[in-house]
Specification:
Number of strands of chain A: 2
Number of helices of chain B: 19
Largest sheet of chain B: 2 strands, antiparallel
Shape of chain A: globular
Shape of chain B: globular
Largest interface: A-B, 36 and 34 residues
Strand order of the largest sheet of chain B: 1-2
Helix content of chain B: over 70%
Structural class of chain A: mainly alpha
Strand order of the largest sheet of chain A: 1-2
Distance between the termini of chain B: 42 Å
Number of domains of chain A: 1
Helix content of chain A: over 70%
Order of helices and strands of chain A: HHEEHHHHHHHHHHHHHHHHHH
Largest sheet of chain A: 2 strands, antiparallel
Strand content of chain B: under 5%
Distance between the termini of chain A: 23 Å
Oligomer: heterodimer
Low-confidence stretches of chain A: none
Number of helices of chain A: 20
Chain lengths: 483, 488
Amino acid sequence: MLTTLLIVVPLAAALVVWVLPLSDESTAGLALLAALAEVGLWVGGARNFDFSSQEQQYSASREWFSDLGISYSVGLYGFQFWLVGLTVVVGAAAIGYGMWAGRERPRAYFGLLLFLVGSLVGVFASQDLLLFYVFFEAMLIPIYVLVGVWGGPARVKATVTFVLYTMFGSLLMLASIIAFGISQGTFELAGLGTSSNDWVFLGFLVAFCVKAPLFPFHGWLRLAYTESLPEVAAILSGVVSKAAVFGFVWIVVPHFPGPVQDFRGLVLVLAAGTLAYGSLLAFRQPDIRGVVAYSSMAQMGLIVLGIFSVNDLGLDGAILHSVNHGLVSAGFFLLAGMIETRAGTGELVRLGGLAKGRPALATVVIVLGMFTLAVPGSTNFAGEFAILAGVFQRGWGYAAVGAAAIVLAAMYALRLVSAILHDRRSSGGADGGTDLVGGELVLVLPIVAILVVLSAWPALVTERSFPLDQPTSFITSQQEPAG
Amino acid sequence: MIETPHVDWLALSPTLALLGAAGVALLGAVTVPGHARRAFSAAVTGSGFIVSAVFAAIVFDRSADPTMLLSESMTRDRLGALAAVILALIGLAVVLVSWGDGRRGHVGEYYALLAAAGGGMVFIVSASSLMTMFLALEWFSISLYVLCALDTHRRESLEAGLKYLIIGSFGSGVLLFGCALVYGSTGQLGFSAIKEATGADDPLFVTGMAMILAGLAFKVSAAPFHMWTPDVYQGAPTSVTAFMAGATKVAALVVTLRILVTAFPEQAEIWSVAVAVLAVCSLAIGNLAAIAQRDVKRMLAYSSVSHAGFLLIAIAANSEDGATSLLYYLIPYAAATVGAFAIVGARERELGRPVSVASLEGLGWERPFLGAALWAFMLSLAGFPLTGGFFGKLFVFSAIYEAGWWWLVVLGVLATALSLAYYLWVVRALYMRPGEVRGAVVAAGGSPPRDLVLSSAVAAALAVTVGSFFFVQPLVDLARDAAASLPL
C-alpha cells in the first residue's frame, strides 16, 4: 500500500497541478507539499521497514494484462527502499529549488517534475518486468519536455540527443523483454527464472549502459546535464541514472547468470574505462556543470564495477555509493545553479574568489567537494572502498584503475573547489553576488546532513540493502522461479 | 408462392440504421431549410451511428456462436459485431469533429455519404462471400470517392477524389479479378465453401488469392499498394481523412483477416509469408517516408501506412493471439488517429491553410488541452507506455514471437525507433519553438471560439487512447471473444 501511495501521490499531484487553474504560487506550494508528503511517507515507511526480513515489504499486486502475464506488482527490498529514498529527497530538493528560483509556466513545469518523481519511484519499486519498462519509458515523457522547454540555448539538441540515445537502448530492451517474458509465460520478476540467451541479455545491457551512462554510450550526457535547468540536471544525474543501477542489480545480474559470467570481463572493462575517461574529462571541463556531469559519469562507472564484481562487498558498496553519488551530484547541480544565478556564468575562468565574504557557500562547496573526492571518513570513501575491495576479487587490474581514478577524482574536485572559491577572479569576471540565503540553505543542508550521517554510519545502508546482508545469496535465490 | 429466405433483422440492424440515416440525411439536404440543415443532418447521422453501435453491441452480446445468414453471404458473429461497434464509434467521433467544419455547401450530402460509407463498412466486416465482400467494398469506396472530392472549391480536394477514384477502382478491379479466378477454380463464392472446395495446388486459385490480397491491401494502404494514401489523405477534407484513416483501415483489415482464415486456411503458409512481406514493406516505406514529410496530414498518412504494417504482422501470425491483438490494436489506433486528425483539422481552420509541422509550433501552450491530447495521440501512435498503442504493439509483437517469427519483432522494434523521429518531432513543435519568437504563427482572423463539440470528441478519443492502456485486459477479453468466432 505504501509503495503504491509513493507512486500515486506525485502522479495525482501532477494531474491536480495540470488541471486546476491555480495561481503560480499555490501551484509551486502544492508541488512542494506533495514532494514533502513523499518524504514523510518514506520516513514513515522506514520506521516500520523490516530490514532483516527475506520478504518484500509494502508489496502490492494486481492483475493487469493477465493474457500476457503482466501484473501491477510493486514492492520493496532494502536496496530499492534506499533508491526510493534517494528519489524522494532529491525530488523534494529539486522542486524546492524550482520554487525558489521561480520558473515560467509553473503549472506545466511542476506537474512534469512531479510526474517524473512518481515514475522514478515506480521504476525502483517494480516487481514486474513490464511494469518496470512502463515506468522506465514514462519518465522519458517529462524529461523530454523538461529539458527541451526550460533548458539553456542548446536545449532542443540536448533533449533530442538524450531521447534518441535512450530510446535506442530501451527499444532494444523492449525486444529483449518480449523475448524473455513470452518465453517464460510471465513478466513477474519473482517468477521469471533465468535465461542464457546472449542476445536477450545484450538488449538489457545496452539499455542500462545508455542510461548509466557507460562509455561509449555517453554521447547524450554533456548536453543533457548542462543544458537543462539545475534541478532537472540534479534529478537526471542523481536519480535517473540509478535506474541503470536498479536494472543491473535486479534484472541483469539475477536473471542472466550465464551471460553475466561470460560478459563480465567486457562490462568491467567498459566500467573501468568509463571511470578513467569520465574522470579525465571532468578534469578538463571549463564549467562547473561539465565537471559535475563527467564526474557523475565516472562515479557510475565505479558503481557498475561494484555490481559486476557480483560479490557481497561489491554489491553493498554499489548501493551505498549510488545513494552517495545521487546526493552529492544532485547537491552539486543545485549549487551550480545557485552560483550561476549569482555570477551569471558557470565558466570556471570567470569565477573565483567566491569564498571571500560568503562563508556558507564556501563551506557547502568544500564539504560537497570533500565528499566528491571521497576523503577518508566520508561515506563516499566507504562506498568506493567496498566497491574496490569487491572488484579486487575479480582482478587487481580493475581495482588499480579504480584507485587511480580516485586520485583523478581528487584532482578534479579540488580544481573545481579552488576555481569557484579561491582562484583570483580574472579581470572582467562575474560578480559573485551574495552568500547563500536561507531558502537555498534549506535545500542544500539536508542533503549535506544526510551525507554526514551516512559517513558516520555507512552500515545503515550497506547492512540493510539485502536481506540478512547477504547480497549474492539473496540474488541467487531469485533465480529459482517462486511458484 | 415464392419462399422467402429467413432474414435475421437484428444482424442487419447496424447496417440498416446507417442506411436509414443516410437516406433521411439526404432527404434533409433537399427539404430542410438551409439554416437548419447542418444541425438536422448531423443529428440524424450521429444518431444513426449511435443506434448502429448499440445494435452491434446487442449482436455482440447475443452471438456467442457464429451463424451464417442469407445463404452464407453474411456471418453473424462477434468479430463482425465488435468491428461494427468500433466503426460506428469512429463514425460518431467524425460527426462530432466535422460539426465545426464551417462547410457551406453540400452539408446534407456530406453527412449522408458519411453514414452510407459507415453502413458499407459495418456490412463488409460481416461479409462472408466474395460477392457481398465486393459489393460492400464498392459501396463504401464510392461514398468515400465522393466525400474526398466534396470540397469542390479546393483543387487538392478534387485531385484527391480523382486519384482515389482511379487507384481505388484499379484496386477494386484487381480484387474482382481475384474473386473471379477463385470462383472459377472452385465454383464457390462463400468463404467456408471455398475452403471446402479447394483445389489447393491450382495455380489459378493461388493467383486469385494473391489478387484478392492485393486488392484488399489497396484499401488497407499497405505498401507497395499505398501510393494513393498521402495525396488523398492530404487533399481530402480533414474530417473525411480522419474517417478514412480510422474506419477504412478497421474495415479492410477485419475483412482481410476474415477471408484469409476462413477461405484460405489451407494456404496459410503462402499467405502468411505474403502478408509478412507486405508488413515489412509498409513498415519500411511508411516510416522512412513519414520522416521526410513537412505536411502533418501527409506525415500521418505515411504513419498510417506504417501502422498497416504493424497490423498486418498480427494477421501474419495466423493465430488466435494474432487476431486478438489485431482487434485490440485497432481500438487505440483508431482513437489516436481520429483524434490527431481532429486537432489538425482544428488548427487548419484556425490558420486557414494546410498544417505543416512548423505551424503546430506553440499549439501546446495556446491550446493546452488540444496540445496535450495531440501529444498523447502521438505517443500512442509511437507505441509509448501510458497509451494503448504500447500494449497494441506489445501484443502484436508477442503474437508474432509466439508464431516463431522473432525477426519480425526485431524489425517492428526498429520501425518503432524510426517512427519516434517524426512523432516526437510533432511533440517538439507543440512545446518547443526555435528562437522563442512568440506569435510567429498568427491565427488567421484571430482565434476562433472554442469548439466544444470538437473538444468533446477529442476528449473521448483521449479517454480511449489512455484508457485502453490501463484497462487493457477487459478490452482484450472482448477482442478475444471476437477472435474466437474465427476458425483459428
